[in-house]
Write a structure and sequence with these properties.
Length: about 90
């Protein structure tokens, strides 16, 4: 696995993806304990997970286009929330 610095985002942009990242993780944890028995809450969770996942992916797509980050077929980007740096991680 290789890690290469490919860019940086503003603190405001970092805050956007960090909020989505934390929300997505929280929803994933909730999904582990929530059963489909509670239909209304379960449906809200599924909808929110889809919406959050889409916003998360859109953020990465938008930033990658804006900053023209290097990419690779087997790689993905990661952010360091402390430094706002973006890394390309190749498997």
């Amino acid at each position: 696995m290789t890690r290469k610095l490919v860019g940086q985002v503003t603190p405001e942009e970092k805050n956007e993806i960090q909020a989505l990242f934390e929300r997505r993780n929280g929803l994933n944890e909730l999904a582990k304990v929530l059963t489909p028995d509670n239909t209304e809450l379960y449906e809200k969770l599924v909808t929110d997970m889809g919406t959050t996942g889409t916003k998360f992916q859109n953020w990465w797509d938008t930033m990658a286009q804006k900053y023209r980050w290097e990419s690779s077929p087997n790689g993905n980007w990661e952010i360091n929330f402390d430094t706002c740096e973006i890394f390309l991680v190749d498997q």
